[in-house]
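Reminder: ligand-aware prediction takes two inputs, not one.
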Amino acid sequence: MPLPFVPGIEVSGHVRALGPGVEGLRVGQPVAALTIVDGGGYAEVAVTAADLVAPLDGLALELDVAAALPSNSTTAFLVLDRVARIEPGESVLVHAAAGGVGSQLGQAARLLGAGRVVGTVGGPAKVEAARAFGYDEVVLRAAASGWFDVVVDMVGGATRRDSLDLLAPMGRLVVMGNASGAEDVGMPANELWLTNKTVSGFNLAAFAATHPEAVGQALRRAVNAAAGGGLRVQIDRLPLTQAAEAHRRIESGGHHRQTGPESAALSSTRRGQTGRDSAREPSCAGPRLREGSRLCEAAPRPRQAGRATRGAVTRGAATRGAGASPAARARGRGGPA
Ligand SMILES: NC(=O)c1ccc[n+]([C@@H]2O[C@H](COP(=O)([O-])OP(=O)(O)OC[C@H]3O[C@@H](n4cnc5c(N)ncnc54)[C@H](OP(=O)(O)O)[C@@H]3O)[C@@H](O)[C@H]2O)c1
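Here is what comes back for the chain with NAP:
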């Protein structure tokens, strides 16, 4: 990881300044935003592409709740709508259903017209927590059975391999994380061919770098859904002095909330997105993408680099972490402005 390191992939706050040519936003406006491409959200002022900003004015959303939406809730809509291409009435299985992103996927599936929505959890203690996020059924991961049109896996390892057996013909497995830290799992292409199954991958950081408009659209959808009561995030508020405790909770995997210190502070760190745990969970986050890491070198270069449509957000709250490279900061992006 290049030092000094400014983590932070999502923020909320008020617009401090707009880059030339930015339309539809105004100084002083309350917003939620992704800073996932260059990182830098754990700072008093963060800079991001205008496309990755969602206005909050007129919406019944507290800034600290809004700060928990840009990464996981946006991802949930993109995974189901854009990657799995969910159809009304289809059945969905979500692993780690009590986790940060799992808690959003079940609700997003419902909003997108899914039929039966089932969640899996690693132990009995999380069954009720997951059920509270609107799953029809929550089962222990080892007991998952049946066929589903869509399966979403962010756990990896044996769960990923077993997920193939849970796919109905024409079913789609979306691979979007590796929370277990397990070795990568090879996918048997011949089996996919012979059984009419599809495996897709999704990474928000890489997609935001190449398709900021699509990500912004999903972000605004998530924000509006949360404001309308159709999407619930549960957050823990901690003072900045307990930032280390916030990270401990995130890294334990034992929580089902987004954890964030109150006001201008940091909270969760997605494994792999900080670079700290990249052996467990590879990442295509912005700085690594730009450096052409082996895992990401095939990804197209970000389109908006050098675009004038950027502005600064004065942060009210921030959650999660990815870092800004020194090069990004030197360009005046991804760090305090
Ligand atoms: N691709 C993307 O764009 C994208 C976006 C958001 C998140 N993610 C990824 O999705 C995964 C989950 O993120 P999150 O924000 O939901 O994290 P989280 O709130 O910490 O939840 C992770 C869940 O993974 C499960 N898990 C299984 N094995 C684990 C282990 N060895 N250590 C810790 N947790 C373990 C746990 O659920 P059980 O106890 O039920 O097993 C835990 O609740 C991460 O890998 C993250 O990087 C990817």
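The first strand starts at residue 10 and ends at 18. Residues 72-204 form a domain with the Rossmann fold fold (CATH 3.40.50.720). We will return to this case in the review session.
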